[in-house]
Amino acid sequence: MYQRLPEWLKTKVPVGANYARIKSDLRGLNLHTVCEEARCPNIGDCWGGGEHKTATATIMLMGNECTRGCRFCSVKTSRTPKPLDSNEPEKVAVAISKWGLDYVVLTSVDRDDIPDGGSEHFAKTIRLLKKKAPHILVECLTGDFRGDLDCVARVANSGLDVYAHNIETVESLTPYVRDHRATFRQSLKVLEHVKKIKPSLITKSSIMLGVGETDQEVMDAMKELRKIEVECVTLGQYMRPTKRHMKVYEYVTPEKFEYWKKVGDDLGFLYTASGPLVRSSYKAGEFFISSVLRKRQQELGVGSGIAEVRE
Amino acid sequence: MRGVRVTINFITPEGDKKTIIANKGESIMDISHTHDDIELECACEGSLACSTCHVIVDPEYYKKLEEPTDEENDMLDLAFGLTETSRLGCQIVMEKDLDGITVTLPSATRNVQLKGSKLS
Question: Which residues are in the Radical SAM core domain (chain A) (predicted)?
Answer without folding.
Answer: 49-270
